[in-house]
Design brief:
By secondary structure, the chain is an alpha/beta fold. 44% of the residues lie in helices and 14% in strands. The protein folds into 2 domains: 8-241, Aldolase class I (TIM Barrel, Alpha-Beta Barrel); 249-331, Bacteriocin As-48, Chain A (Up-down Bundle). It has helices spanning 19-28, 48-54, 79-90, 106-110, 121-134, 155-164, 187-196, 210-220, 229-233, 237-241, 249-266, 269-283, 288-297, 303-311, 322-331, and strands at 8-10, 33-40, 70-75, 97-101, 141-148, 169-176, 201-204, 224-227. The protein is globular.
Length: 340
């Protein structure tokens, strides 16, 4: 069976789809490329560690352990500063640089970044142009936008600006800032943007199932899709879209444990339990086992107690390398931490 889409991308989602979850979800398979959470640029040239902190894949050839390329995303409104930072970022070897014109967060929009810029197509043009000039010609520069800020009247103008500025690809989240993440997504408006430009385009928004993917493709005309919350809720979604069988809960558990070990190495102890519960909360949409597990851990805050409740003795039966087994054994030791 031929793949339903030509490319399936993993979305950037601040506070959710970070390095540990990218590493885990790309191990499941079906994803062609990831985009990182945004790196905020606010008037200074960032040190290299600021880029590698958000995108640790830069330290391993710009790819996840599964070999999936990762584009690093920049967010800001000063085209000169963005260009300087893009040049430094490019020297670290990402799989490309993406520009954020879609973030709906109030704190970002108050500072003139994210979706706020969609009210000024000329600013969008200047930013993309400056970044395109600043990085090597062979490095892809893409952009991600929403349909607009308060409304979608300037959507075509913004798409044309991004194309004219020399971007290689455009991802369109088929909602405005005002729409937020509330359904529906207006996939048919993506088709209007495709008619306005020749730029390769990717549709994004409200793709939870294979049927959603089919309807999105039909309505938007896009061959490629970007998956966000749908992939977090159903890690086998990309495989299923490609005609595969998805992933069973029993097969997901070892990957969840791998995610937990990544979180344990990268996240402060007081935030670890929340990260695992956050993912479980999404998984409830697909797996009954996730619902029952979430019910147990919902009120727990001690990370070791949460890990023990989620995995229990199951971890002892998993085929883990020795370092992971040691890390797991340590995670199950009694904790002296006071629950938050």
């Amino acid at each position: 069976m031929r793949p339903l889409m030509s490319l399936l991308l993993l979305a950037p989602m601040e506070g959710l789809l970070d390095h540990p979850l990218r590493e885990t979800l790309t191990r499941v398979g079906g994803i062609d490329r990831c985009v990182s959470e945004f790196i905020r640029v606010t008037g200074t040239l960032l040190p290299e560690r600021a880029f590698t902190r958000v995108v640790p894949e830069l330290l391993q050839g710009g790819r996840t352990r599964a070999g999936t390329p990762v584009r690093a995303q920049l967010l800001g409104s000063d085209e000169v500063c963005l260009a300087e930072n893009a040049a430094r970022l490019a020297s670290l070897g990402p799989a490309g640089i993406d520009l954020n014109f879609g973030c709906p967060a109030k704190v970002v929009n108050r500072h003139g970044g994210g979706a706020m810029l969609l009210q000024e197509p000329e600013s969008v043009f200047r930013i993309v142009s400056a970044v395109r000039r600043a990085v090597p010609a062979g490095m892809p520069v893409s952009a991600k936008m929403r349909l607009g800020f308060n409304d979608d009247r300037l959507a075509e103008d913004c798409a044309r600006a991004i194309e004219a500025a020399g971007a290689d690809e455009l991802v369109v989240h088929a909602r405005t800032k005002v729409h937020g993440y509330k359904p529906p997504a207006y996939w048919e408006r993506v088709a209007d943007l495709r008619a306005a430009v020749r730029l390769p385009m990717v549709a994004n928004g409200e793709i939870w199932t294979v049927e959603d993917a089919r309807r999105c493709r039909q309505a938007s005309g896009c061959e490629s899709l970007m998956l966000g919350r749908g992939m977090v809720s159903d890690p086998g979604l990309a495989l299923a879209i490609r005609g595969g069988a998805g992933i069973a809960w029993s097969a997901l558990l070892p990957l969840m444990l791998d995610f937990w070990l990544h979180v344990s190495r990268r996240v402060e102890p007081r935030h670890r339990a929340g990260r695992l519960k956050q993912w479980l909360n999404y998984l409830r949409r697909t797996y009954p086992e996730a619902q029952s597990t979430y019910d147990v851990v919902r009120t727990l805050n001690d990370p070791r107690a949460v890990a023990a409740a989620v995995f229990g003795e199951e971890a002892a039966r998993l085929d883990l390398p020795k370092p992971a087994r040691r890390a797991w054994a340590q995670a199950l030791q009694p904790s002296d931490e006071v629950p938050a």
